[in-house]
Write a structure and sequence with these properties.
Layout: E1 4-9, H1 19-27, E2 36-42, H2 45-52, E3 57-63, E4 73-77, H3 96-102, E5 108-114, H4 127-148
Length: 149
C-alpha cells in the first residue's frame, strides 16, 4: 500500500493563507480512512520536506491565487509542476515545490488549492471563507477520496 500524506501548509497569521492548516485539522478527525497520514506543515518548509521525503503519494492543501472566486477548490497534479530554469538552487533557498520537482520521479500527488478572499496580517479566516468553510471541507474530502481510490 502506498504511503499517502496529506500536508496542510499556510500561515494562520495571514488570514485565508492558513486554510490548508484548518482543513487538515478537520480531516484529522475523520478516522474512517486508514491509509492516510495527515501532517500540518504550516510555513515550515524544511519540516514539510522531511515529512514527504519517503512518501509515494502526497496531497498538499494550500491557499492558491489563480483568479477564481473566493472558496473555489482546484486540483493540480504535481506532475505538471514547472520550475523556472533560472532558479538558483542552494540549501538556503529551497522551496517545497522545487524539491517536489526534483523528486518528481518518486513522489506523485496533487495540490488542492483554495482561492482566498483576503490575505493580510490577522489571525483566523476571513468572514467570506469562514462562511464557506463547511462547503470547502466537504469538497476537499470528496476530492481526496477520488484521488486515493
Amino acid at each position: 500500500m502506498e504511503k499517502v500524506i496529506v500536508l496542510g501548509i499556510g500561515n494562520r497569521l495571514m488570514m485565508d493563507d492558513g486554510i490548508g492548516i484548518y482543513l487538515v485539522e478537520e480531516l484529522m478527525k475523520d478516522e474512517s480512512v486508514q491509509n492516510i497520514q495527515y501532517i500540518i506543515g504550516e510555513s515550515d518548509i524544511d519540516y514539510c520536506i522531511q515529512q514527504i521525503e519517503h512518501a509515494t503519494f502526497v496531497i498538499i492543501i494550500d491557499c492558491t491565487i489563480i483568479g477564481g472566486q473566493p472558496g473555489d477548490v482546484t486540483i493540480h497534479s504535481l506532475d505538471n509542476l514547472v520550475v523556472s530554469r533560472s532558479f538558483d538552487f542552494s540549501i538556503h533557498n529551497l522551496h517545497l515545490f522545487q524539491v517536489l520537482y526534483q523528486l518528481r520521479n518518486q513522489i506523485k500527488g496533487f495540490l488542492i488549492g483554495v482561492e482566498p478572499y483576503k490575505i493580510s496580517f490577522n489571525f483566523g479566516l476571513s468572514r467570506v471563507i469562514e462562511n464557506k468553510r463547511n462547503k470547502i471541507e466537504e469538497k476537499v474530502k470528496e476530492v481526496i477520496k477520488q484521488l486515493i481510490n
